[in-house]
Structures are given as structure tokens and as C-alpha cells.
């Protein structure tokens, strides 16, 4: 469950960076009242922690899923 939540947060962060890169539009800041707003900073921090967690996905052994 934590892997999926982390991956979702990383995807949200990536889409936000895409918007920043293409249109100079920060959706998180726009939705939360600016880059320095507390909620924006919390979201940025959560996305960063999720990115660190997702690094572990690269190095884990994968278990085969049994087909029913």
C-alpha cells in the first residue's frame, strides 16, 4: 500500500514539474495559496519523501505473481 501511495505522489510531483517546465505554472502553489504556504510545503515534502521511498523500488527483488 505504501508503495502505491508513494508512486502516486511521485507521479503528481512529476506532473507538477511538467507544468512548471512547459508553462511556468506551479499547480501545487496555485491550489494551496503560494509556494510558501504551509500546505504547499507539506505537499512538496511528502512528494520528496515519496520519491526517496520509490528509490527502494528499484532495488527490491520482485516476487512472481501466481496466476489463478
Structure characteristics:
single chain, 68 residues, mainly alpha, 74% helix, elongated
Please write out the topology.
Elements: H1 2-23, H2 27-32, H3 38-59
Helix pairs in contact: 1-3
Beta-strand level of the residues, as a percent range? under 5%
Helix share bin: over 70%
The oligomerization state is single chain
By DSSP, the count of extended strands is 0
Task: Give the low-confidence spans.
Answer: none
Global outline: elongated
The H/E string reads: HHH
Number of helices: 3
Overall pLDDT score: 93
Structural class determined from secondary elements = mainly alpha
Give the domain tally.
Answer: 1
Major sheet, described briefly?
Answer: none
Rg, Å, rounded: 15 Å
Beginning-to-end CA distance, first to last residue? 22 Å
Amino acid at each position: 500500500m505504501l508503495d502505491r501511495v508513494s508512486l502516486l505522489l511521485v507521479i503528481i510531483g512529476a506532473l507538477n514539474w511538467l507544468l512548471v517546465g512547459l508553462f511556468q505554472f506551479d499547480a501545487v502553489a496555485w491550489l494551496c495559496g503560494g509556494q510558501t504556504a504551509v500546505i504547499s510545503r507539506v505537499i512538496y515534502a511528502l512528494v520528496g519523501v515519496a520519491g526517496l521511498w520509490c528509490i527502494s523500488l528499484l532495488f527490491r527483488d520482485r516476487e512472481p505473481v501466481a496466476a489463478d
